[in-house]
Give the backbone structure.
Amino acid sequence: MAFRPIHQTRTTRQEDETMHLTKDIKKYINQSILCWLATTSADGIPNVSPKEIFNHYGTEEIIIANIASPQTVRNIRQNDDVCVSFIDILVQKGYQIKGKAVILKNSDTGFSEREKVLVDMTGGKYPFSTITNITIRQVKSIIAPKYLLYPETTEAQQIESAKAAYGLL
């Protein structure tokens, strides 16, 4: 399966771009077990944190439940530039998404709708009181080097190789 480019829409301001999630990106979000959210403090100190409860929301946003994320929340309140990456660990393809994040509280507009999506994923087993809401600005595909070095590699072959490497056979 070939990666399709993301569709881009320009708003009235030239420098303000909004990206749209394609079906392929949504598919990889749904197939990924974890994502990794990168943030930076006001002092420029980076932080990368794995996130288990995340999903797409509409065509321009990714939402993440803040379950045990005090540093992530602090950093986003200081610097709203973030990067989130996710891959299907067997196919070894996914995406890196950069954007602007806000921390939504239960009193904020739109919180309830986003909360429902995330609670439906967890069955209510993971309590959270805030949501990281990322508006997408840039998207780049992630692909295992094997696909580039050996272009004849199929996804089925890569899955079998990954299963063997991870002891899943």
About this structure: The longest strand covers residues 130-143. Residues 134 and 153 are 34 Å apart (CA to CA).
